Amino acid sequence: MRAVVQRVTRASVTVENQTVGAIERGFLVLLGVERGDGKADAEYIAEKCAGLRVFEDEAGKFNRSLQDVGGAVLLVSQFTLCGDARKGRRPSFTQAEAPEAAERLFMACRERLLALGVLVETGRFRTHMEVSLVNDGPVTILLDSRRAF
Q1: Other CB atoms within 10 A of residue 31 CB
Q2: Are 105 and 77 in contact (CB under 8 A)?
Q3: What is the CATH number of the domain that holds 12?
Q4: Is 11 domain-assigned?
Q5: Within a domain: 123
Q6: How far apart are CA 122 and CA 19, in angstroms?
Q7: Is residue 28 a contact partner of residue 21, using CB atoms and an 8 Å limit?
């Protein structure tokens, strides 16, 4: 499972000109589910997001987590994170999980974040979404439950 975690001052997702999810301070998390991922991968990503210390303390150091600052997560499914563009010009998406299984694991990640006390908003699975954000810093972290990077 791969995630792009962006620290934001605000973020929202729109489907057919209607806002379906929006947050203020926190993380926009773009989540890609790969074949072979399971509940442990979803929990790993959720726990990493909740505990990432990328918010400043009084001294300006990255010492506070999302949980420490009471931040929220806008969780957005993005199968294209599973794309392999090493050969040719068109990415291959053969490593992306089938939609039904991917949605179950996406929801497992959401549920774990909620269990950790994090407010979670989501996009709408299997739709064309427009995502808006104000990246704070900018701070962007890449996560991979298989620790490939």
Answers
A1: 27
A2: no
A3: 3.50.80.10
A4: yes
A5: yes
A6: 10
A7: no
Number of domains in the chain: 1
Residue 149 forms part of a structural domain? no
Residue 140 and residue 146: Cα distance in Å, rounded? 19
The structure tokens listed for 106 are 């996406």
Amino acid at 67: Q
In whole angstroms, give the CA distance from residue 18 to residue 15: 5
90 lies in a domain?
Answer: yes
CA distances in angstroms from 143 to 19, 30, 60, 89, 127, listed in the order given:
27, 10, 24, 24, 24
What is the domain range of residue 61? 2-143
Confidence class for position 149, pLDDT limits 50, 70, 90: low
- Any idea which residues carry the catalytic annotation? 78-80
pTM: 0.96
CA angle 44, 73, 66 (to 5 degrees): 75
